[in-house]
Design a protein that fits this description.
Layout: E1 18-21, H1 39-48, E2 50-53, H2 59-74, H3 76-79, E3 84-86, E4 93-97, H4 99-102, H5 104-110, H6 113-123, E5 127-135, E6 145-148, H7 150-158, E7 165-171, E8 182-184, E9 191-194, H8 204-207, H9 218-228, E10 231-232, E11 240-244, E12 249-251, E13 262-269
Bound molecules: ligand 6CS and fe (iii) ion.
Length: 311
């Protein structure tokens, strides 16, 4: 029996599903901490819980990143690591975690001023990488990511205290209507969906292939969808999506011939470092949730990753 706590974002405590109003702002310090997004962009982010920066990276930079991610996906050394997650029922690579440390190119991308300063501005502080991953979603074999709030998982399983983290998804391939684009529910970031069920031990060993706990109930999902709709991110390679840690999102499987590859950096505020997981859960491994390598990040000039050695 899990004893009820004063945690406003309690979830997976064997109680019924519930909806809790968000406490934290979307844009901290009124966006004054850094100067990356214009006021209208900040307002759109606060309203929707995400913003799409179309064509932020030019084609040459995207090609460099795609080549690096392809290299890692083909590297037998990487494929056998815990960071590499294959699709359920196939050997196709679904995700590679901790890419910002497995690759010097992606490490430099994570520090690129065009990305880092947006995160610093939204979170109103210095930041570090809580998690990074490349999601490959290969043609024909890329399976879905069912609806979820990342914060619900990071709060329960990683002990992330507050909603003060932002995901940055860099599109390495065109995201079209047919290759399983990221879908977001505008406005959903303002409500926390408490999920039913209890987290099994070592849940990440199955959840990164197909999440079964921390999955919102259909009634709550319907409510969020009716309130704000569902927006697929249809954008060209080189575009970048920033979405709040609590924005409800997911993506369908990819039965098209074309891959839908992106690389994610999750920036967390240095004021929001992880505590112990909830309910006595065992902390997840470092490659999924950073607990040690959480130093403040210094910005690199735009495109500096193009001059980085491959290994
Ligand atoms: O458990 C996690 O941290 C991962 N799971 C999902 C479905 N999205 C966020 C993150 O990659
Ligand atoms: Fe997610």
């Amino acid at each position: 029996m899990i004893t009820p706590t004063l945690d406003p974002y309690a979830s997976r405590t064997d109680r019924d599903a519930g909806i809790v109003q968000r406490v934290e702002p979307l844009v901290y310090e009124d966006g004054a901490y850094a100067n990356a997004l214009q006021p209208a962009q900040q307002a759109a982010y606060a309203r929707d819980g995400f913003i799409v920066l179309e064509d932020l990276l030019p084609a040459g930079e995207v090609d460099c990143l795609m080549e690096e991610v392809d290299r890692m996906t083909r590297d037998p050394q990487i494929r056998q690591r815990d960071e590499a997650i294959t699709e359920k029922g196939s050997q196709a690579v679904r995700s590679i975690f901790r890419v910002h440390e497995l690759s010097r190119v992606i490490h430099a991308l994570a520090h690129d001023e065009r990305l880092l300063n947006v995160a610093r501005q939204l979170l109103g502080s210095e930041v570090y990488i809580h998690q990074s991953r490349a999601n490959l979603k290969p043609g024909f074999k890329g399976k879905d990511f069912y609806w979820h709030s990342d914060f619900e998982t990071w709060h329960v399983e990683d002990g992330m205290p507050a909603m003060r983290a932002v995901s940055c998804s860099v599109l390495l391939t065109d995201n079209s209507a047919v290759n399983g684009p990221l879908m977001l529910m505008p406005g959903s970031q303002k409500q926390f969906i408490s999920c039913v069920g209890r987290t099994p031990d070592a849940h990440y060993k199955s959840s990164l292939k197909q999440q079964e706990y921390g999955v919102p109930d259909p009634v709550s999902l319907q409510l969020l969808a009716e309130q704000g709709g569902v927006v697929p991110v249809i954008a060209k390679a080189g575009s970048v999506v920033f979405f709040d840690c609590n924005t409800m999102h997911g993506s369908s499987s990819n039965i098209s011939p074309w891959p839908r590859a992106n690389v994610f950096m999750v920036y967390n505020s240095v004021e929001n470092r992880l505590g112990p997981p909830k309910y006595g859960l065992t902390p997840r491994p470092e490659h999924i949730a950073t607990r040690t390598n959480d130093a403040v990040m210094e910005a690199l000039p735009a495109g500096a990753f193009m001059q980085t050695g491959r290994e």
